[in-house]
Amino acid sequence: MKTNICLIGFMGSGKSTIAKILSKKLNKKLIEMDEIIIAKTKYNSINEIFDHKGELFFRELEIATAKELNKIEKAIISTGGGVVMNKIIIDYLKQNSLIFYLKTNFSTIKTRLTQDFSRPLFNNLKTAKQLFSLRAPLYEYYSDYQITTDNKTPSQIADKIIEIYNNFLYIQQVNTDENKKE
Ligand code: S3P
User: Fold this and answer.
1) Is the pLDDT of residue 176 over 90?
2) Whose CA is nearest to atom 12 of ligand 1?
3) Which of 81, 89, 116, 141 has the highest CB neighbour count under 10 A?
4) CA nearest to 76, candidates 16, 134, 13
5) Residues enclosing ligand 1, CB less than 6 A?
6) Is the distance from CB of 52 to CB of 148 less than 8 angstroms?
């Protein structure tokens, strides 16, 4: 059964903000993958992990974290923007989560992140744009639903996700009941 809501999307697409709202509105536990990863290390930030141990080390912890989330139910999971670079992470997440892609224009992301220095992979606008183009089709491919976020308030985005999620839970339950009858 899929009972978690999992948000994917590029850096700055609003995953953490929307996840917080969803967690409040649905009264469900909030899980920030990046925070779990930081807690697994002796470092205090993603920047520090990248600086001292490199991206590969970070990605290994990201895989380990996704694997642990296998046991979690009824939670809101906010992922890091790079989870789509490892199919194994998506496979773990898909086992118990409905995946929503927060689709945001690069120009909006650029405005949000230009003065934000907390993201090691958003230091250079040209390479960030390349990363965005590379990943955009992956977010689409791996998600169950896409939510276009431009011109919507965070609350409107959260409400749309809740509507889809509730519908999904209903259909999932009906299908489970039908299977039991057979
Ligand atoms: C990353 C996104 C970050 C964080 C790390 C790598 C990426 O998370 O996991 O800096 O590869 O896109 P956010 O998407 O929350 O910024």
Assistant:
1) no
2) 81
3) 89
4) 16
5) 11, 15, 34, 46, 80-82, 119-121
6) no
